[in-house]
Write a structure and sequence with these properties.
Blueprint: H1 2-12, H2 22-28, H3 39-61, E1 77-78, H4 109-126, E2 171-176, E3 180-181, E4 204-215, E5 218-230, E6 237-248
Parallel strand pairs: 1-2
Antiparallel strand pairs: 2-4, 3-4, 4-5, 5-6
Helix pairs in contact: 3-4
C-alpha cells in the first residue's frame, strides 16, 4: 500500500529520482591512482635508493651478535625493492606514513629496473649473493607448536612433525624497500630496538627491511624500519635506529 502511494508521487515530480544501484554507485566512486613521477623525481629516487641500500648493506655487514641488527651468516639480498616485480609493496606498508608514493611519484618500471641493477652492482662490489624468495609450504613457523600425541585407538600412528618440510640447513634472504625521506609519522613517539624513543632531525632517511629465515626448526619473517642520519663529519648515511614493525612466526 505504501509503495503504491509513493510511486505515483515520484512519477509526478521531475526532481524525484530513484536510488542508484550498486553498479551505478561503484562507478561513481573515485578510485585512488598514484601520481606518476617526473623524470627528475625518478633520478632523485634512483640516487637516493643506491645510497640508502648501500648503507643497509654496510650496517648489516658490520653487525654483531649482541643487539639488532644481528649478523647473518647466510646473507642474501633480493635486489628488487620489497622483493616485488613492480618495486612496490603488494600490500599496504603497515606503518603510517611509510607508503613510498607519499615521498615520490610512482616510478615507471624502467626506473625500478635501474634501481634493481644498481643494487646488484652494490652487492657484487661487496661480494654478496643475490637471494630469491624460498617456499617451503610444508614447513611450519618457529612458534608453531607440535600437535599432541594421538589417542589410543585412532588411525594416526605416527606423531605429526610440523617442521618435517623445513630445510635441513638455515637459509635467509633480505628485502629492502624504497627510500623514505625523513622519519614517517607512524614511527614517532615509539621505542626503537634499544628501548629508546626516536625523534631524529637533520638529513634522515628511512626504509623497511624484511628478513626471512628458514631452518630445521621452522621459518620466520621479521620487518624493521631502519632509520639513517647523515653524518656531519663523513657526509655518509649512518644507521641511527631500528624499529620493529612486524613479525610472523
Amino acid at each position: 500500500m505504501i509503495l503504491s502511494l509513493i510511486l505515483p508521487l515520484c512519477l509526478s515530480l521531475p526532481a524525484c529520482r530513484s536510488v542508484p544501484g550498486a553498479e551505478e554507485s561503484s562507478a561513481a566512486s573515485p578510485v585512488y591512482s598514484p601520481r606518476a613521477a617526473s623524470h627528475e623525481e625518478e633520478m632523485t629516487l634512483i640516487r637516493a635508493d643506491s645510497e640508502v641500500f648501500a648503507a643497509v648493506v654496510r650496517a648489516q655487514l658490520n653487525a654483531g651478535t649482541d643487539e639488532y641488527p644481528f649478523h647473518i651468516d647466510e646473507l642474501r639480498y633480493d635486489p628488487r625493492p620489497y622483493g616485488t616485480r613492480n618495486g612496490y609493496p603488494d600490500l599496504g606498508a603497515g606503518v603510517q606514513g611509510a607508503a613510498p608514493e607519499l615521498y615520490f611519484g610512482r616510478a615507471a618500471q624502467t626506473a625500478i629496473d635501474q634501481i634493481a641493477e644498481n643494487r646488484k652492482a652494490i652487492l657484487n662490489l661487496r661480494g654478496l649473493p643475490e637471494g630469491s624468495p624460498f617456499n617451503y609450504p610444508q614447513c611450519g613457523g618457529v612458534r608453531v607448536p607440535q600437535p599432541p600425541p594421538a589417542r589410543r585407538g585412532t588411525s594416526r600412528s605416527r606423531p605429526v612433525n610440523v617442521h618435517a618440510g623445513c630445510p635441513k640447513k638455515p637459509e635467509s634472504y633480505v628485502t629492502v624497500g624504497l627510500p623514505l625521506r625523513g622519519q614517517p609519522e607512524g614511527l614517532r613517539k615509539i621505542r626503537d630496538s634499544r628501548g629508546e624513543y626516536v625523534d631524529l632531525g637533520g638529513d634522515v632517511w628511512t626504509t623497511l627491511v624484511d628478513e626471512y629465515f628458514a631452518g630445521p626448526n621452522g621459518w620466520s619473517h621479521i620487518q624493521h624500519a631502519w632509520l639513517f642520519k647523515r653524518s656531519r663529519w663523513s657526509g655518509r648515511l649512518d644507521l641511527a635506529a631500528t624499529i620493529q614493525t612486524g613479525i610472523v612466526e
